[in-house]
Structure to design on (270 residues):
C-alpha cells in the first residue's frame, strides 16, 4: 500500500521546484494525489510552510445574471455559450462569502475556508489567496479587471503550479490573451449590496490550451507528489511566452469542440 501524502511531502516537493517563499498560483485536482493525510488543507499547509502564498481560482457562475434590459449582443462575445441564465439569481456575490463552483475543487474550497484568506471582487471569476501576499495578489481584481491577480503573481516572482491538471486549467494563458488584445468575454452578475447587474469579465474557452505546451516547454519544471504530476512555470516568463504565441496566432488556443460558442466567436473575429 502506498503511503499517504503529507504536508511535509508537499513542502519538500515545492522546495525541489524552487517554490519556497514564493507566491504560487495553484490549479489542482486533490484526487490526483491519491491518499492525502489531512486532505486539501495538508496541501495548502505544505505550500505555505516556507512563507509562500497560495492563490487559487474561485469561480462562482451561480451569480451570473441576464444582461440589462435593452442589451444588444456584443460582437464576438459568444453570448450563446449557455453561461447567461434566463433569470437573475436570488442572491449576489459577496467576497466575504465562500460560495464557489464545485468544479474549482477541494483545494480551492479549503483556501476559501481559511481564516484571513482574501478573495477578489469579480463576481464570476474571483481568485482567493492565503498567506503573506494574499491581499496584495487579489486586491486589484474587479469586475472589469479579472486577471489582475495573475499579473500581480507575475510581478511578484510567482509561479503557476499545475497539480494533476493540464494547461487547460491555466488561467494565466487567458491573461496572456488579454495582454495582446484578445479581450475576455463580457458577462453580467449580481453583486451583494448593488442594485441591478454588474458587468463582469470572464475568461474565454481554455479547452485548447494544451496546444501551448511546446511554447512553454523550456520554462516548465516537473515533479510529482504521491500520484500527482506537477508542472510549474515562472508566471512572468510564461505570460510573456504565451503572449508571443497569441500575438502571432490569435487562434492558437481555440478548441476543436464543434459546439463551442466562445471559440466560434474568436474564429469569426480573426
Ligand atoms: Zn472552445
Amino acid at each position: 500500500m502506498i503511503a499517504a501524502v503529507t504536508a511535509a511531502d508537499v513542502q519538500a516537493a515545492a522546495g525541489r521546484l524552487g517554490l519556497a517563499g514564493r507566491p504560487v498560483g495553484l490549479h489542482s485536482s486533490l484526487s490526483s494525489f491519491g491518499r492525502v493525510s489531512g486532505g486539501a488543507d495538508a496541501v495548502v499547509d505544505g505550500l505555505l510552510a516556507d512563507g509562500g502564498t497560495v492563490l487559487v481560482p474561485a469561480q462562482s457562475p451561480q451569480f451570473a445574471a441576464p444582461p440589462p434590459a435593452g442589451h444588444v449582443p456584443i460582437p464576438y462575445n459568444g453570448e450563446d455559450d449557455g453561461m447567461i441564465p434566463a433569470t437573475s439569481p436570488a442572491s449576489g456575490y459577496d467576497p466575504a462569502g465562500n460560495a464557489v463552483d464545485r468544479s474549482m475543487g477541494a483545494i480551492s474550497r479549503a483556501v476559501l475556508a481559511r481564516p484571513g484568506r482574501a478573495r477578489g471582487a469579480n463576481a464570476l471569476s474571483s481568485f482567493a489567496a492565503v498567506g503573506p501576499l494574499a491581499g496584495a495578489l487579489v486586491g486589484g481584481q474587479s469586475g472589469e479587471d479579472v486577471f489582475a491577480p495573475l499579473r500581480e503573481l507575475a510581478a511578484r516572482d510567482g509561479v503557476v503550479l499545475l497539480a494533476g491538471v493540464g494547461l487547460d486549467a491555466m488561467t494565466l494563458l487567458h491573461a496572456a490573451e488579454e495582454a495582446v488584445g484578445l479581450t475576455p468575454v463580457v458577462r453580467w452578475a449580481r453583486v451583494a449590496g448593488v442594485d441591478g447587474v454588474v458587468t463582469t469579465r470572464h475568461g474565454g474557452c481554455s479547452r485548447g490550451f494544451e496546444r501551448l505546451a511546446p511554447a512553454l516547454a523550456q520554462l516548465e519544471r516537473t515533479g510529482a507528489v504521491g500520484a500527482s504530476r506537477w508542472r510549474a512555470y515562472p508566471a512572468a516568463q510564461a505570460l510573456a511566452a504565451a503572449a508571443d504565441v497569441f500575438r502571432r496566432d490569435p487562434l492558437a488556443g481555440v478548441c476543436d469542440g464543434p459546439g463551442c460558442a466562445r471559440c466560434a466567436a474568436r474564429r469569426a473575429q480573426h
Summary: The beta strands are 23-28, 53-59, 118-119, 125-130, 159-163, 185-189, 198-202, 221-225, 228-234. The chain has one domain: 7-269.
